[in-house]
Design a protein that fits this description.
By secondary structure, this protein is of the alpha/beta class. The protein contains ten helices and twelve strands. It has a six-stranded parallel beta sheet with strand order 1-12-9-8-7-6. Strand 6, helix 4 and strand 7 form a beta-alpha-beta unit.
């Protein structure tokens, strides 16, 4: 049983050097690459990627997951660019020795009928899953707010229709469930057997992002239960304590906590990492 702790280090700074420094200071040796050197991972040029890989290797940092924005568009938007983004990640995969790709499942801004929203989202995800299989990638679906798969019943359907372990898996994001007004513990009880990864992000009852364990996301209770159940998989620190350029680019829900406004991005990341590692230690979690 192993828990792989990684982080969206672009929340500490935009450059590879800043991100590597933040990870080293925190004692984390895995990264989820989202934004780096002025590029989102789905548009990162191969020659620039080679230089970044060399820096990561020199620092002893490996890539756990690509934090792609695939699926964070409307069901009425053109789908072909989504496949092109995935194809590019297929080219980056061997370079970074990474197969895991975070993705989402589509907004419905024009309020199409629920059946149409479900049908189109599932069809798009199915095509992405099939392409991922061809590329040797594994998709990890996040329960982002206001997309199709943001609530527990929809995620249960995604699990039944798409989750296969080899090409399509599911992320449990504590904060997104909390901000949707869900009972996060109840969602965990329903999704326990279908959860393949966690996003370590928490929020309070005012929708302000806080270090994990300090909000309403039931983080400690759920991770303790996962540990007792023998769960294994990746956990990605995505603190959102400060709405930096990296966070703002994601179109975040919720609010930055006022107590962190005076801190730099790197300081906010360091505090989030400290709290996460402290919780891992208290739980005696098998983190690597």
């Amino acid at each position: 049983m192993t828990w792989t702790l990684s982080a969206f280090a672009d929340e500490a700074g935009p450059t590879a050097d800043e991100q590597i420094r933040a990870l080293a200071d925190a004692g984390i040796c895995q990264i989820d690459i989202r934004g780096i050197e002025g590029h989102n991972i789905v548009a990162l040029p191969l020659d620039l990627a080679e230089g970044i890989r060399a820096k990561l290797d020199a620092a002893g940092v490996s890539v756990c997951m690509f934090g792609s924005p695939i699926g964070k568009i409307d069901i009425a938007d053109d789908f072909e660019p989504e496949l092109e983004k995935l194809d590019h990640l297929g080219r980056l995969g061997p370079l970074f020795e990474c197969r895991a790709v975070r993705l989402f499942s589509y907004f419905n801004k024009n309020e199409a009928p629920a059946d149409d929203w479900r049908r189109e989202s599932l069809e798009r995800l199915r095509r992405l899953r099939d392409r991922a299989g061809e590329l040797g990638l594994v998709l990890y679906h996040e329960n982002e707010r206001k997309i199709y798969g943001d609530r527990c019943p929809e995620i249960e359907l995604l699990a039944a229709e798409l989750r296969d372990g080899d090409r399509f898996r599911l992320i449990f994001d504590f904060d997104n469930f909390n901000q949707s007004g869900d009972d996060v513990w109840d969602n965990w009880c329903r999704l326990r057997d279908d959860t393949d990864a966690f996003h370590l992000k928490d929020s309070n009852d005012r929708s302000e992002h806080v270090p994990i364990g300090q909000g309403e996301g039931c983080v400690r209770r759920i991770l303790a239960d996962a540990l007792a159940a023998g769960w294994s998989g990746p956990l990605s620190l995505e603190p959102h304590l400060k709405h930096s350029a990296a966070v703002t680019a994601t179109g975040p829900h919720g609010k930055a906590h006022q107590s962190f406004t005076s801190l730099t991005e790197a300081e906010c990341f360091a505090e989030a990492a400290r709290c996460a590692l402290e919780m891992m230690g208290e739980l005696s979690a098998p983190v690597k």
